Predict the 3D structure of the following.
Amino acid sequence: MILVTGATGLVGSYLLYNLLQKDEPVRALLFNQNSLNRTRRIFESLGADAGAMLAKVEWVEGDVLDVLAIEKAMEGVNKVYHCAAIVSFDPRDHAQMMKINVEGTANVVNAALEAGVEKLCHVSSIAALGRTENSPVIDEKSQFKTGKYNSKYSLSKYMAEREVWRGTAEGLNAVIVNPSIILGYGHPEKGSTKMFTTIYSNSLFYGQGINGFVGVEDVVRAMTGLMESQVKNERFVVSAGDFSYKEVFSMIARGFGKPEPKWPVPSFLLEIVWRFEWLRGKLTGAKPLITRETARTSRGNYQYASKKLHCTLKFEYTPLEDTIMRTCRLIKNDIEKGRA
C-alpha cells in the first residue's frame, strides 16, 4: 500500500494519476472534500475517467497535523509520498506554514518510523537549498543560510527537510526531491498556475530575473523513479533548466495567443507595488498579488544544477515549452467555458 499526503494539490494530483495508472494500491489523506474537484479536473485533462479512478483511492479524512489520522493512514503502508505543504509568500500565512510544513512533516516521519515504512519520498523545494544575492550554481550540496534572500517559505522547507534527515538517522529510508518552480495545469488561483491566469489577463510586463522551472509531470516521474530505485537517504534537484522570466512569460503569452511581454518591471516600481499590495491586504483581507519576498525573487538571478538526477536515473526532461503550451490550452479552455 502507498500513502500520499497532499494528494489533491498540484504534485499530489498528478502523482495519484501516475500511481493509479500503474494499478498501485493507493491511500490518501483528505482534509477538504472540495479540493477533489480540481483533482477530478486534472484527471479529465489527462483523458481519464476521473470518477472511476478516484473511486480506486482509499481516502482517509484528516491532515498532517492530525496525528491519529496519520497513524491510521499509515497502517499496512510500505511507501509514503509526502506532498502536503503550504506554499505562500504572504506574511499572514507564516505561522500556519511553519506549522504544517515543519510540524506536519515531523508527524509523517514519526508515523512512518513507527509503522516500519520501507521508504518515504519528501517533496521539498529548491528554496530549501538557500540563496544569496550573488548565488553560484545551486545544487544538492548547497547549504541553507538565513537572510533576506531566503523567504519564510524557504525556511519552512529547510526545517521540514531536517525532520526527514532526523528520520533517516533513526532508521527511515528516504529520498528528497527539490523541484524548481513547478509548472502545470492546476488550481487557477494557487501556486505557479496563477502566473498563467495573470498573464492571460495582462501579458505586457515581465520580471527581470532568472530562475529554474520544471513541468509537474517530470517532478512526478522523478519521484516515482527514485522510489522504485535502490537510492536512499539522498536529495535531488529537479529542474528542467534556468530561464529568464521574460522567456517563460513569452512562452505563456504565445500559448494564449497574446502579445509577448515588452516592458521589464523596474525595481523601484516593484518596491512600490508590494507595499501597496501589503496595505490593500491589510484593509480588505485580500491576498496580495505580490509581496516583498516575491518581488525580490522576480529580480534575482538563480541557477540550478540537476545533473545528479540525470546520472542516477538517466533522467530526461520534457521541453518546458511543451508543458507550457499544454497548460495554456487547458486553462484557456476553462476560461472560455467559465470554469477558471
